[in-house]
DNA sequence: TTGAAAGCGCTAACAC
DNA sequence: GTGTTAGCGCTTTCAA
C-alpha cells in the first residue's frame, strides 16, 4: 500500500486514522491509492497494537436452562429484540458491532470472562434474566468494562441502567383509580425477579395511598400462558374485580383472553393495564393501555456508558434510571 | 508466560493449540503455569498470524427502512430469535461467536462488506428480508464466505438453506380437505417475498389437485394487524368460507381475532391453519394447527455450511432444503 | 521433541 | 510534515 502511494506506511496510517499534520496533496494521493487498490487495513494487526477490538460483547446471562442447547425463550421474547435494536442504534454509527454471547451455565460464564480477557471484545453489555447472577461480580473481578441492564443484587461496583419500576406501577394504580375502579388486583411477574417485585410493591404502595389497604395478586412467569392462568385464579378469588394491573404486556394479552373467556368485557367490566409497551400491546384486542418501558433508549444508554468505561478504565460506576410513562389505549 | 514455565514460547503455543509431539511432563508444567498466572492468549496476535478471527457475522439485510435508525421490526419478530438460537446452538460449542450487523442501506451494505474484508469475521450468515437483496452478489464478489437463509433471487453462486414452502402449503391444503372443508381461502404474505409466493402457489396447486380450481386470497404483510385485515377482506368476499390457510402464525393470530369478531367459531365454522409453528401458534386461542418451519435446525445447518466454506474456500456452493411438517392443534 | 528466529500488518514514538 | 524504527503477542518454519 505504502509502496503504491509512494509514501511511508506511517503516513498511510495517519491518513487512515485521520490524524492531522498531513500534507493535503499527500493525503489525496494516499486516498487515491487506497481507492485504486481497494485497500482495507487489517483489523487484527491494528488491535494488536491499539489493544482495542472495536467490538463489545452483548451477554445474555441466565438465559436457557442448564442443559438446554437452545436459548430460544429469551431470544424470542420481543424484549430481547428491543434491547438489541437500542444497542445497535447507538453502536452502529460508531463502527462498533455487538458480539452475541450466552452465559447460562457455570462453564459458559467462565468462557465469557475468558473471551473478554482474550480481547474478543472491549467490554460487555450484560442482560441477566435472573437476579443473583454471579457474572457481574466475575466481570468486575476480571476488570472487564461492563454495564448491566438492571441493578445487580447485592453491592457490586458496576454501572447499570434501570427503569423506575415502582413509579411505573404507581402510574397504573393512579390510572385505575382515576377510572373509578374500586376492586383492583394484579397479575405480577415471577417474584424472584427484582423488577417484578418492584412492580408489585409499587402498585400496592400506590393503591395504599389511595386507601386500598389490600390488593390481591397472582403470580405469573411473564409469559402469555402464565398470564392467562394467573388471571383465572384472580377471577376465581375475586369474581367482581373491575381493574387489573398486569406486570407485562405478554401476560396482559393472556389475561385479556381469560377475561373474555369468562364473559368479562374490557374495559367496561374490567380495566386492564399492562407494562412495557411492547409490540404485544398493540397486537391485543382491545389494544392495551400500558406503561412505557423505554427499552431501546435504555439499551442505547447502556452502550454509551460502556464506551465511557472503555475510554476511561478507572471511571466510577454510574447508574441511569429511566422514567416510565402511561400510554393510554383502549383496555383501561 | 514462557519464562514462568521455563520453556520457549513455541512450546507454550504448541501446548495451547494441542499439537502433538510435546513431552507430557513439559505439557503438564506449561498447563500448570497457565493456570497459576491465569494466562489467556491474545486473540489479535493470534488472528494476525492465523488469519482467522473465530467470529462470523450474522447479517440482517434489508431490515428497517432507509432512514430508520432502529431496525426494531425484524428484531422483535420471533423468527429472528429462532434464527439466532439455532446459529448459537451450533457455533457455541465450537467457540465461535456471531457478530451482529445490519445492512439496510447502500452505505451499510458497503460497510458490512468492508468489515468482512478487514477481517472482523471469517464469513457471513445472511438473513434477508427482501428478495433482490444485492448483498449476496456483493459478498460473492468480495470473496467472503457466506451462506444465505433462503435461496437468492437470480443466479448467484452461493450456499443457502431453505424450506420447501410449497410442500408445507400443500400439507395445509390436504389437511383442510381432509377436514371436509370445501370453501377455503388463503391469507398470503407479501407477494414480493419469494417464500410468500411459494406458500400461496403451493396451496393453490394442492387445492387444484383436490379439484378446487379457484382459491380466493388476500395479501397481508406477515404482521398481526395485516392478518386481521386480510381476514376481514376475505370474509367480506366470501362470508361462507369454512377453511383458511394463513401464511404465517402471526397473521393467523390476527385472522383468529377477525373471525371471532365476526362471530365465527374456530374450528367449528372455520378451520384455520397457520405456518411456522412459532411461539404465536401456542399463544393463540384456540392454539393453531400449523406447518412446522424448522428455523433453528435450518439456522444451525447454515452455520455448519459456513464453517465448511471457511475451512475450504474453493468449495462449490451447496443448498440444503428442509421439509415442513403438519402440526395439528385445535384450530384446524 | 524443543528452541530460535522470522514475520503477520499495523501504530506510535522519535528523529529528521 | 514525513520517514525510520521498534515493537504489539502470537504461530510456524527451520535447525538442533
Automatic annotation (TrEMBL), chains A, B:
Keywords attached to this entry: DNA-binding, Transcription, Transcription regulation
Domain HTH cro/C1-type: 1-40
InterPro entries referenced in this protein's UniProt entry, alphabetically: Cro/C1-type_HTH (IPR001387), HTH_LacI (IPR000843), LacI/GalR-like_sensor (IPR046335), Lambda_DNA-bd_dom_sf (IPR010982), Peripla_BP_I (IPR028082)
A Pfam family of this chain: LacI
Domain HTH lacI-type: 1-50
PROSITE patterns: HTH_CROC1, HTH_LACI_2
Signal peptide location: none
GO molecular function: DNA-binding transcription factor activity; transcription cis-regulatory region binding
Keyword NAD applies: no
Protein name as annotated: DNA-binding transcriptional regulator, LacI/PurR family
Species classification: Bacteria, Bacillati, Actinomycetota, Actinomycetes, Streptosporangiales
